[in-house]
Amino acid sequence: MLQLTRPTHIDVGRLGRLSLAPGFYVYVGSAFGAGGLRARVERHWSGRGRPHWHVDYLRAVSRPVAVWYQVQQSSREHDWAAALARGRGLQPVPGFGCSDCRCGSHLYHAASAPSFDAFRRRLGRRKPGDGALQRL
Ligand SMILES: [Zn+2]
Fold first, then answer.
1. 26 CA to middle of ligand 1, Å?
2. Distance, CA 4 to ligand 1 centroid (Å)?
3. What is the pLDDT tens value at each position of the chain, 136 positions in all?
4. How many angstroms is it from 93 CA to the middle of ligand 1?
5. Is 0.90 topped by the overall pTM?
6. Which domain does 18 fall in, by range?
7. Count of domains in the chain?
8. Ligand 1 center to 82 CA (angstroms)
9. Ligand 1 centroid vs 6 CA: distance in angstroms?
10. Which helix (H) or strand (E) holds 2?
């Protein structure tokens, strides 16, 4: 979850120029690459590294405020995006972070910080072998 304190424009690769309202942005991703969850969270939290994903351009103008995560047998990032889409007060940023899937977005904006407990309820039951939803 990233916080943006003022209206901002960013250029995001092929997505083009986005006008972003202040508030909270919840981005969904997976971390099955080298270094796993720790490496991915450290990258996004620190903001270091060359821009690669759409979220890197947002990260450059915002500050991280929370990380919600779950250790899973297989990726459920698209289920998470769907759960965010059902959230009250959450608006998708169309096409963001989902150029290789069928979701409408992997980034959701809210004027005030979204609730962890409400998100956990919307996710529903854990799949066998999945860990608990946790936050940093
Ligand atoms: Zn997706």
1. 14
2. 23
3. 999 999 999 999 889 999 999 999 999 999 998 899 999 999 999 999 888 899 999 999 999 999 999 998 888 999 999 999 999 999 999 999 999 999 999 999 999 999 999 999 999 888 888 899 999 9
4. 13
5. yes
6. 2-135
7. 1
8. 8
9. 28
10. strand 2-4
